Structures are given as C-alpha cells and as structure tokens.
Task: structure prediction
Amino acid sequence: MKPATFDYHRPDTVEDAVGLLAEHGDGAKILAGGQSLIPMLSMRLAYFDHLIDIARLRELQGIEHRGQELWIGAGTTEAKVGADAQVRQAVPLLTRVTPFIGHFQIRNRGTLGGSIAHADAAGEYPAVALTLDATMEVLSPRGRREIAAADFFTGVWETTMAPDEVLTGVRFPVWNDRSGSRCTSFRAAMAISRSPARWSRWRSTTMTGSRAARSACSVWAPHRCALPRRRRP
Ligand SMILES: Cc1cc2nc3c(=O)[nH]c(=O)nc-3n(C[C@H](O)[C@H](O)[C@H](O)COP(=O)(O)OP(=O)(O)OC[C@H]3O[C@@H](n4cnc5c(N)ncnc54)[C@H](O)[C@@H]3O)c2cc1C
Result:
C-alpha cells in the first residue's frame, strides 16, 4: 500500500519546523527517520496532510557532554548513537541496547528522538530513558521546556508532548564509575504495544529497575518483557 497524499516540508531550522506545526495544526506531523511513521502511513493507520521533515536539521544532531549529562540531539541516528565512543563511555546502556533495534538499515535512518517521541512500549530507547531518568528537551511556539522521562511517557504511543512541540534533544545522566548496567532481551513480545496491560507491566518493571539502580548502583533495563501470550478478547 501507499500513503495517502501529503504536502512535504523541509524547514531550514527547528524554529521553522515549530512554525509549520503551529500553522497546520492537527493536519501536520514531524517526519524524522520515517521508520515508524512511514509504515503507519503506508498501511493507512494514520493520515496527515503535511509532513515536516527534520532529518537534515544539523542543530538536532550531535552528542556532547553538558555538565554531568550527555546530550544527544533528537535527530541523531540510532546507528550513530550505537557507534559513538562518548556514549559507550558515559551511557553504556544505550550502546548495549542499540544493536537490538531492528536491523542496521533501520538504525541508519531511525533517530533517537523519533524512537522516544514515538513511545513504542517495545522500543529500546524509551525503556533506557525511563530507567536512567533522562530529560527530554522540547520546543514549541511557547518556548523551550524540559520533561523528565517519568513524566514524559503516559501510555502506548502516548507522551505528554503537545502536538505543536518538537523534541530537540535528550539528556542522559552520566553515572559514576561505581555504577553498572545490563540489558536482557526477552524475545517473546514484539506485539507488546498492543495491550495496555502489557504496557503497564513493562513500565512498572522498568521503573522498579530504575529504583533498584539507585540503591544498588546497577541498572536493570528490561527492554522487552516476557509475558504469557494471551488470546485477544
Ligand atoms: C522493521 C522495523 C523494526 C524495528 N524494530 C525496532 C526495535 O526492535 N526496537 C525499537 O526500539 N525500534 C524498532 N523500530 C522502530 C525504529 O527504532 C524507529 O526508527 C523509531 O521508532 C522511530 O524513529 P524515526 O526517526 O524513524 O521516527 P519517525 O518514524 O520519523 O517518527 C516516529 C514518530 O515520532 C514523531 N517524531 C519523530 N521525531 C520527532 C521529534 N524530534 N519531535 C517530535 N516528534 C517526533 C513523528 O511525528 C512520529 O509520530 C523498528 C522499525 C522497523 C521499521
């Protein structure tokens, strides 16, 4: 199948992207790597009159230390995150989970910001952001604001970002040398995002891990949960 027709916009700045979002309202959507959005459009699970392509915006790309945190631009590809030496040293959990994301063609185009904004319950980066208490930076016509990961994800494919907000970057705390991280892959549940019960189980498991991380100086990041398969009602 092919997507329904849409107008394609390629703004030169993030401010222009925000302006286009505000101008076109509910009929507009940000396009980053397209690895989640385009399949949904192609299957006609979603429809937008305007797509605003932010993939080439340089100000949304990059990885740098900012104080005790590592800032990663929302437009940075998953491949770059997975290969970056600063990430490996400062936020090794991101390095560990990245190879689990799809396959390399997906990671070459898919972005960290796209994955987090999409908020798929089966996604690796949302789980890491929650587990490590990351901070999301967003921009809208009302200005910039920050959202803690615990306040950002509200459900399957749902966040507290307003429709006219653009995620510009994510800051991950840099844990000290006495901390550690680990991820375990449970291959059972790619369809995890279809069930709210599974989502809440996934989320509580992740949050439990986050609390354990603070007390035990180790991170438990269950980015897939092994739940028994259920028949649909
Ligand atoms: C075959 C396949 C397998 C995959 N397997 C996995 C997997 O195992 N694990 C995993 O985690 N992911 C997986 N993915 C998803 C992949 O990680 C996507 O790249 C990611 O979810 C979305 O990133 P994107 O840059 O492509 O975003 P897009 O598809 O362009 O956008 C996704 C959504 O986020 C919004 N958005 C994007 N960027 C921003 C922004 N900066 N501000 C505000 N809103 C924004 C868009 O409007 C859209 O609603 C898979 C995808 C495919 C096609």
